[in-house]
Amino acid sequence: MKDKNELAKGWVLKAESDLATARRMLASEGPFDTACFHCQQAIEKFLKAFLAFQGQQIPRTQPPAENHVMGQHGPNIQ
């Protein structure tokens, strides 16, 4: 099994890919809603990277990862 740093790095790479897709969509004046979708996906993946780095279990079902993070860390995420 991968260690927490490898898991976090994997999620960050996936999130960065979503952000790159969103940027390409916006630069080409592609559908705005598609760019927003990829931004939302990136946020979820960055939050999953945070959970992995903290050694916490990543939720696979609803509530979304951001609810899990905010419930445990509140506004003090650093």
UniProtKB/TrEMBL annotation:
InterPro entries per the UniProt record, alphabetical: HEPN_dom
Domain HEPN, first and last residues per copy: 13-78
PROSITE patterns given in the database record: HEPN (PS50910)
Protein name: HEPN domain-containing protein
